[in-house]
Write a structure and sequence with these properties.
- With 541 residues, the chain is α/β, with parallel strands linked by helices.
- It is built from twelve helices and 18 strands.
- Strand 9 (253-256), helix 7 (261-264) and strand 10 (272-274) form a beta-alpha-beta unit.
């Protein structure tokens, strides 16, 4: 019998949750203007439910000038007209709930657009309650000093000062305060104006929960406070936010874009953290030059048919975070999202399926990017649009629903589309894969179903590495909960293998639940594992 796994303080529904990320302007266009919208998304909820996912993350649909495709917010409480109305948002929440789907909104915590009325008031009106809601220096010639690590915009308006920005120049940093102020213009985290901002941002979260959302993906969650080296004050804000949200919905769920689970997760604030901004993550999927558009990489990924990768280069970083956070929250290892290149760069459906088996078999919470279930590919050479610089641009193209005009995404003329659809003559689409057991769509559905149903694949179930190493294939690991015990074998290398490993405990005969071209035979606590190139197996023992 396997030891009982640790269950962190996260809502129980997340244990077997599978999340599907939707980039709204690229998913489904209902009104023929070439841009996806909320009514279009609502019309595809049956498809989403049919995938087997029980939660979606929707990228921002707040009012925005769209210099960064909605991550530059002009009003946190309004829906941008290009996506629909407030009633459409409420209808999305209600219709999703009918299908057993929870909706996470993207919460842009650390900044707004320069068009936001709060920022405009901070530029022009010293008497405004919003004057200190952004981080401004107290004179235009302020440099911040030699150790200052924040970006500043100089000479923006008549205010004698520079504002700090978080990413693009037009995204001024909201003033959550400085944990260790060392200049007169750096307000402490306990300053009354800073605390007023804290309350307002928590109000935004509570507003959308009351509208029907079930939680949030938090953009740049660790960036909110400044001069906060161990993020003590940032975590203090998220604890306060969680306490307020749980009064409205005790099952609310939040996942951070922080990429430091050991720091981020404390059991009382954010529930999960994406682990994808660490260099070790690139060594899973994206270390080859051909898989890193715009980057000068010359390494090897573990999930590559050449078989020259090193899974330990990832595990040596991941495992300490896993052990430090497993009593406090969950780690998510996405294979793609709106900021990363698509996982399908020079990969076959079989290679993608092996990667998806990794995604759905690992501990923590799986997030899946729209279109990956059919193998949508990264499109090269697209123009920069609304902050979509490479590799973002090639990963934000319209969802491919059919083989018809505009891949069924929109009735607009092709030149009106948000981005062009994949022009390849045999580009994958949903209609062409529905109901075909060998198709990637159906293979992915089967993996999602297994993740949802098998106790040993719960987010918190026991996890142990059984076989790994530099240039060593396959990667083999153990998942267990109660009587459910699994051995997962992943061989993305295009060469056969035959190994012998020791199991954590004696087991009976193995039964394959998913996979292709891999075998496992058990003798006591020894397991004989073999397979062809490009193979995997999920075995119940």
């Amino acid at each position: 019998m396997s030891t009982a796994p640790i269950h962190p303080p996260v809502p129980a529904w997340v244990d077997h949750a599978v999340f599907y990320q939707i980039y709204p302007q690229a998913f489904a266009d209902s009104n023929g203007d070439g841009i996806g919208d909320l009514p279009g998304l609502i019309g595809k909820l049956d498809y989403i439910a049919g995938l087997g996912v029980n939660a979606i993350w929707v990228s921002p649909f707040y009012k925005s000038p769209m210099r960064d495709a909605g991550y530059d917010v002009a009003d946190f409480y309004s829906v941008d007209p290009r996506y629909g109305t407030a009633d459409d948002a409420r209808r999305l929440f209600a219709e999703a709930k009918k299908r057993g789907i929870r909706v996470l909104l993207d919460f842009v915590a650390g900044h707004t657009s320069i068009d936001h009325p709060w920022f405009q008031a901070s530029c022009h009106d010293p008497e405004s309650p919003h004057y200190n809601w952004y981080v401004w220096t107290d004179r235009t010639w302020e440099s911040g000093g030699p150790d200052f690590r924040h970006s500043m915009m100089h000479g923006f308006c008549e205010r004698d000062g520079n504002f700090l920005f978080n990413f693009f120049w037009h995204q001024p940093a909201l003033n959550y305060g400085f944990a260790q102020p060392d200049q007169p213009w750096q307000l402490s985290v306990d300053h009354p104006d800073v605390r007023a901002l804290w309350r307002e941002m928590i109000n935004v979260l509570c507003f959308w929960l009351k509208e029907g959302a079930s939680g949030f993906r938090v953009d740049m969650a660790g960036s909110i406070t400044k001069n906060d080296p161990d993020k003590t004050e940032a975590r203090r804000f998220w604890r306060a936010a969680r306490a307020a949200m749980e009064k409205i919905d005790p099952e609310v769920f939040t996942v951070a874009e922080w990429s430091n689970p050991a720091h981020c997760l404390d059991g009382t604030g954010l529930h999960a953290d994406f682990f994808h901004w660490d260099s070790s993550y690139q060594k899973l999927f994206r270390n080859e030059a051909r898989r890193a558009p715009g980057d000068r990489r010359e390494g090897h990924s573990f999930f590559d048919r050449e078989g020259k990768g090193d899974i330990d280069a990832f595990l040596q970083v991941y495992l300490p975070h896993y052990e430090a956070s497993r009593e406090k929250g969950y780690i998510s290892i996405p294979v793609a999202n709106h900021d990363l290149s698509r996982i399908n760069i020079d990969r076959t459906p079989r290679e993608l399926e092996i990667i998806y088996a990794f995604l759905f078999a690992m501990p923590g919470v799986p997030f899946f990017y729209y279109g990956d279930e059919i193998g949508m590919r990264q499109l090269p050479g697209l123009p920069n649009r609304e902050g979509s610089y490479p590799p973002r641009s090639g990963a934000r193209t319209p969802m491919q629903w059919t083989g018809g005009p505009n891949a069924g995404f929109s009735a607009a003329a092709a030149e009106q589309l948000w981005y062009p659809v994949d022009p390849a003559p045999h580009a994958p689409h949903v209609a062409g894969q529905e109901g075909r057991p060998e198709a990637l769509l159906e293979r992915t559905r089967a993996l999602i179903r297994l993740r949802r149903e098998e106790p040993a694949l719960a987010a918190h179930a026991d996890f142990r590495v059984l076989h790994s190493g530099p240039n060593v294939y396959p990667f083999v690991f153990w998942r267990a909960q109660g009587e459910s015990r699994l051995v997962i074998v992943l061989n993305p290398a295009d060469r056969p293998f035959s190994i012998e490993i020791e199991l954590p405990e004696a087991a009976g005969a193995a039964r394959q639940l998913a996979g292709c071209d891999a075998e496992l035979r058990i003798v006591g606590r020894r397991a004989l594992v073999s397979g062809k190139g490009l193979s995997y197996g999920i075995f119940k023992v």
